[in-house]
Design a protein that fits this description.
Blueprint (H helix, E strand, L loop, with lengths): L3 H6 L1 H9 L3 H43 L5 H32 L20 E6 L12 H8 L2 E2 H8 L5 E2 L2 H20 L3 E3 L4 E3 H7 L17 E3 L4 H5 L6 E2 L6 E10 L18 E11 L4 H18 L4 E5 L11 E9 L4 E10 L3 H5 L3 E3 L5 E3 L1 E9 H11 L7 E2 L13 E2 L2
Parallel strand pairs: 4-8, 7-13
Antiparallel strand pairs: 1-10, 2-3, 5-6, 8-9, 9-15, 10-11, 11-12, 12-15, 13-14, 16-17
Helix pairs in contact: 2-3, 3-4
Length: 425
């Protein structure tokens, strides 16, 4: 959530910044301004009436002390009291409407976020390696996985419908190996603390990280309980510290977690329906940072490097993109996407988005810290996939396939696969 005090004092600046995202975002800010004008006018009137009531109360006390008749003034004050009660109710309604509308306003892009309206305007920052050259036509992961008996789409659809996959045999072992490899890498080499959070999440936690109310249609909600399935570990892990005031020296907090992730993909009908490119359930290792305001952009750059380390270790070609304002996620102020090359589908696929949300999420969850002077400040939060397994598995199978249909296991992953060097039938 944006700082309403900042919006009040820098409205034109905020509107111009939000117009970099979209005209709709800038227009929505007008509604915030109008509601805040109503709120301020009502508050000023309430304050005036309360001051008047206090003055007259003193007069009533003085009249009674002198034995005078104060009934007329008491009657006037009853009317004033009724006005105050009515205005207080209106004020509560306006403030509630203001808060609800503010939850739909996206974050302001950082000045270093490039202008643009779509993925075509994103900027490549760097790339690692080059696409491998094959003396045969690379197969897709769905063909490889089916032929090796490690991916079962047909039986997954039988029990869950489209958009699901069942990993079998060495495919299941591969998922477990990747999860353990990534958790060990981030905890032992990158300094993150491992967390195993709940997978069912309260609405207020989903609001805290920005999934709700804006993206309700993409979330899986339980029918009989006020809970949602985790769309990403970002939600439970970042919310671990909601409504807390952290010590200055405790920051930055660096946390990582494995969770399954559940997404309805409501707005993606017909897109990437083959294989595992877009699925409703997938595993992910997530990286979360909670930092002091002045440190967050340095920590963002380090976060991207930590996610990249996974792909380097697995010998995969990838590129890093700086997203433009119009293609960036709702809560982000600045975002890098890491896209890995998948030769079978002949495309780069995103396996990690590393974002700095600045104070946007922390303000929604009342997450603060004591600065060096002992004053309360709003934390900055960051997160990035470290990484998402579905597309990582696609890249691994398609990149390391061999002419005979087997898949070579990268050296870094072999200890987690019991020393196995090749996945074969």
């Amino acid at each position: 959530m944006l700082d309403l005090k900042y919006l009040r004092n820098h409205f034109d600046e905020a509107k111009t910044a939000l117009s970099r995202r979209s005209s709709e975002a800038a227009a929505a800010l007008e509604g915030i301004w109008q509601l805040d004008e109503r709120r301020r006018a009502a508050q000023q009137e309430v304050d005036t009436l309360k001051n008047e009531r206090n003055l007259v109360s003193k007069e009533v006390g003085q009249l009674k002390a002198k034995g005078g008749d104060a009934s007329e003034k008491i009657g006037e004050m009853k009317k004033v009291g009724d006005q105050i009660a009515s205005l207080d109710q209106m004020l509560r309604e306006v403030e509630e409407a203001l808060e609800k509308k503010a939850l739909f306003i996206p974050n302001i892009p950082h000045p270093s976020t490039p202008d643009g309206t779509s993925a075509a305007d994103n900027k490549q920052v760097r790339q690692y390696g080059e696409p491998l050259k094959y003396h045969f036509k690379p197969k897709t992961h769905w063909d490889l996985g089916t032929q090796l008996g490690i991916l079962d789409f047909e039986r997954a659809a039988k029990i869950s419908g489209s958009g699901f996959v069942c990993h079998r045999g060495l495919g299941a072992r591969l998922q477990r190996a990747l999860i353990s490899f990534m958790l060990d890498l981030h905890t032992q080499k990158h300094g993150y603390q491992e967390v195993s959070p709940p997978y069912l999440i309260l609405e207020k936690a989903m609001v805290g990280t920005g999934q709700l109310p804006k993206f309700a249609e993409d979330m899986y909600a339980l029918r009989d309980d006020p809970l949602y399935l985790a769309p990403t570990a970002e939600v439970p892990v970042t919310n671990l510290y909601r409504e807390e005031i952290l010590k200055f020296e405790a920051l930055p907090l660096k946390l990582c977690a494995y969770t399954p992730c559940f997404r309805r993909e409501a707005g993606s009908a017909g897109k990437d329906t083959r294989g595992m490119i877009r699925v409703h359930q997938f595993d992910k290792v997530e990286l979360v940072k909670i930092t002091r305001a002045e440190d967050s952009y340095d920590e963002l750059e380090k976060l991207v490097v930590d996610a990249e380390a996974v792909l380097k270790a697995l010998e995969l070609h990838y590129r890093v993109l700086l997203l433009c304002a119009g293609d960036m996620g709702f809560s982000a102020a600045k975002c890098y996407d890491i896209e890995v090359w998948c030769p079978g589908v002949d495309a780069y696929l995103e396996v990690s988005s590393c974002s700095n949300f600045e104070s946007f999420q922390a303000r929604r969850m009342s997450l603060r810290y004591k600065d060096a002077e002992g004053k309360n400040q709003t934390c900055h939060t960051l997160n990035g996939s470290g990484t998402a397994l579905a597309r990582l598995t696609i890249a691994l199978l398609e990149t390391h396939q061999q002419a005979d249909g087997t898949v070579k296991i990268p050296q870094a992953l072999r200890p987690y696969m019991g020393g196995l060097e090749v996945i074969a039938v």
